[in-house]
Amino acid sequence: MKTDVVLKEEVSDELDWEPSVNATRIGVAVKDGVVTLSGEVASYHEKMEAERAALRVEGVKGLASELEIHLPGTSHRSDADIARTAIDALRSNSSVPPDRIQVVVKQGWVTLEGDVDWGYQRATAEDAARRLTGVVGVSNQVSVKAQPTSAGIKTRIEQAFKRNAEIDASRIAAEITDSTVTLRGTVRSWVEKQEAERVARASPGVSSVQNRLEIGA
Questions:
Q1: pLDDT of residue 147
Q2: How many CB atoms lie within 10 A of CB 42?
Q3: pLDDT digits (tens, 9 = 90+) for 187-216
Q4: 3-class secondary structure for 109-127?
Q5: Per-residue DSSP letters for 131-191?
Q6: Residue 128: per-residue pLDDT
Q7: Which of 26, 112, 129, 186 is most exposed, with minimal Cβ within 10 Å?
């Protein structure tokens, strides 16, 4: 098991390695495997990438983000401008169903509303919004319409786990209730936990995923 000192060094190295992050403005602290990031970033996208970089490090059990967004002068945009750009970004993304998602912007914070057919469409819409210049946060309130339950949904998810090199399928159980998947078991890292959720969410017939996986040895 890695010590907090080792984890701090490796998280700092990972932040340095991530090209979308200015690691010189970010402080790292670790206690009992939980990482705290502090300091300033220039965009919401940079904040998210810094958090993802920290969670990629093996041995990290959790994350507390105290990063503050300070937009450069050239990045400040009106709410109306951000809303128009967000709508254009969603319309131009082939993975997002047209005219199903509404955008509300207040003081740089984007709220997405509406409904989609699949979980990956909801995630894609959020990813498109958080990359926009001037955005300081995203609230994803898009709902996923329930799909008819398939008798083979559990089998398809388990097979997808077995095909994935990043997932130890033998340690994960998928429980199906209507169109909701609950994942239970133990994984080796936060990355494996998120990858298992991504695979389950992309499976046909799934409207939502409850990720109860625990990070262990």
A1: 60
A2: 15
A3: 988 889 999 998 998 887 787 899 999 988
A4: EEEEEEEECCHHHHHHHHH
A5: TSTT--EEEE--EEPPPPPPTTHHHHHHHHHHH-TT--GGGEEEEEETTEEEEEEEESSHH
A6: 93
A7: 186
Contact 103, 46 (CB under 8 A): no
pLDDT at 20: 92
**CATH code of the domain in which 29 resides:** 3.30.1340.30
83: left (phi over 0), alpha (psi -120 to 50) or beta: alpha
User: To which residue do tokens 């705290």 refer?
Assistant: 36
Tokens 């098991």 map to which residue?
A: 1
Range of the domain at 193: 153-215
Rg from Cα positions in the chain? 19
Structural domain total, the chain: 3
